[in-house]
Design a protein that fits this description.
homotrimer, seven-stranded mixed beta sheet, 30% strand
Chain lengths: 268, 268, 268
């Protein structure tokens, strides 16, 4: 049988010793746990970014993996820490909504527990580093086969992240930029299928205070270098990009900026 | 039995091939070694930063792990490379003091060897990359079970890092900023217990040329966003922070800046 | 037997979910695969940088390892994806030349296949993320022992990276800066042996529009802090550095800048 896998997603960066301390705690409990970094570059305390990240990463993993997430502006307050099972994926997270964008095709199989059993924690627990003192040791014990039901008590409600929903009609799509990646690609919250009713050469895109007519492509390199392109992202969303360049820089736009697609008049 | 674990802590960053080369060398000697990144973002050649990092990371690991540290401004000179055992932790380090802040509760169990047995090294050894040519292969051999005593000769002295000690009295605490993390939290070298003699609402904090009266909290989110707070860090030290902001930016202060706590007059 | 190892080298950074998605896909196919990050900080779409990185990293690995490389400005176009075996190393790469600087001591043992067998891919395949949809699943299947010959069809030609060759004579060496590392060290494409014909104290180095007489050393710390030094890099190339400083900053020079070494007149 494969050794159990524990992934880590944090906003700790790498220059501070926080991630390393968590790895030590996990291995102190289960030296056979295989630890996998997903990211330590979530922008500090950016729960929305973490939610987008998890939504686009966790579904690709097989079910047995344990995912620890520490993006936790409320650390030390009375916000709960949760054990979550959703579509077979297992997460240990602060109750701040970071996991609520994960797809849940079978709500009846969802299980959410508030972590309460301090016997699985480090002692004493610091007020500012629950990743090290609670989540890492709980992950270590889970990876040893501890039954999740022993970790705490079931809860029926939790913080839901406020997610902007796009407004979609046949000739007008309104949404926003949900994510900007390291290439400067602007990924919106507008599903790619919504484009189908709009004639491809007349799709006018308004981003912030700019209006553009991107070239619609399947992939970046179909257009000349430097060209503003529109496409459907690898996660199925409308995306604005610049081949071999940065759309974020070109358009001066970032996460949260309004995006609207309309149909230009035929002689426009 | 679990596969042996080797951790890496360097100032190499990730864009250069140096870390990858070390991983290749280790796996070439022991393909079953499990390699774990602690950090490759130690600021270049910053031995003090490395020392703080190791002090706050290594103690959480179980003893069997092998820790390789390459922050090595003296590479290629006659500075020694060391095998160190301290409180059961095993490190391979340049002799520049980076490990000397690690707690040592049992000095009689400490073992320090100068690496001299070139049979465990790559050949030839370059003058500028001992991480790849000496430390990585020695770690590989150690992980195969080679007795550490075969690696070199015992030494009784080594470079001690000059660590600033705080001056503590009942009404005045003098120290400095020892670390700034990625949130901009300022972690001092003043132990949290030293605060006990000072009335909580009258603790005046001088950082650089600024004097502030932070709100004293157990954790960041007890105060409103943007508030300057004082607290005891997850490692037990006095820390100055801004809830959901950066104290480093707000106060224009960084590592080494003087910090002084005094008691404000009751009518001050 | 050791679990199979898959390394990842990308230009994805860590803040986006792309690397994590690839890890999930691999583990979904082979939960026992051990995933090792080489770098996710290749500068975006910089195939030359990737080529230098691989040339200086892959040769240190043992042969059984599978290396996945995703620096892929042509994703989604008709550029091929390749399985490559060179000197026993196994790579999965876009056909953009990123692997062609790897040493090949035995061309008869080289095997290059174009990936065509979609049965080993995710379905559907997106137009913009072949790392997740093709390379990661193929790596997973390879790590399970699938015969590489089943993955596609042999090809006899591939994109060769245009690599600048230095011009070397006894009294004049012309080349360029091939790499700048995180210390600001300037690594040229001029082999260190070429220096032998030039008297050490008369080696004049022209970098961009600057002419310097560096101190020639075996390692950085032989010279005083701040001194411009010349040396032979850990990979055997002429390197210009500043002890405890950045030669890139001092000389305002970066990748591609012309470097010329000449012999200064004895009374010069």
């Amino acid at each position: 049988m494969a050794d159990p896998i524990i992934t880590l997603t944090t906003d700790f960066g790498e220059s501070a010793p926080y991630v390393a301390a968590m790895k030590g705690v996990i291995l102190g409990i289960n030296p056979q746990a295989r630890i996998l970094d997903l990211s330590h570059q979530i922008p500090p305390q950016d729960v929305q970014h973490a939610a987008f990240f998890l939504q686009n990463a966790i579904p690709y993993f097989p079910p047995a993996v344990i995912h620890v997430v520490v993006v936790d502006p409320g650390v030390g307050t009375d916000r709960a820490l949760l054990y979550v099972e959703v579509d077979g994926h297992r997460l240990l997270v602060p109750d701040n909504g970071c996991w609520t964008r994960l797809p849940c095709t079978d709500p009846s199989g969802r299980r959410v527990l508030r972590l309460t059993e301090a016997g699985y924690w480090r002692s004493p627990v610091s007020a500012t580093f629950h990743g090290r003192d609670i989540l890492a040791p709980v992950a270590g014990h889970l990876s040893l086969g501890v039954d999740a039901r022993k970790l705490g008590v079931p809860v029926e409600s939790w913080v839901q992240l406020d997610v902007a929903s796009p407004e979609l009609s046949l000739d007008r799509l309104r949404g926003e930029i949900a994510f900007v990646d390291q290439f400067g690609n602007l990924i919106t919250n507008i599903p790619g299928e919504a484009l189908q009713s709009m004639p491809v050469h007349r799709r006018l895109v308004h981003v912030g205070d700019r209006s553009i007519l991107p070239v619609w492509v399947k992939t970046y390199a179909e257009a000349a270098a430097g060209t503003l392109v529109g496409l459907v992202s690898s996660a199925g969303m409308v995306e604005i990009a610049v081949n071999q360049g940065s759309a974020a820089e070109r358009l001066g736009a970032g996460v949260g900026a309004a995006v609207e697609l309309t149909v230009r008049g035929e002689n426009g």
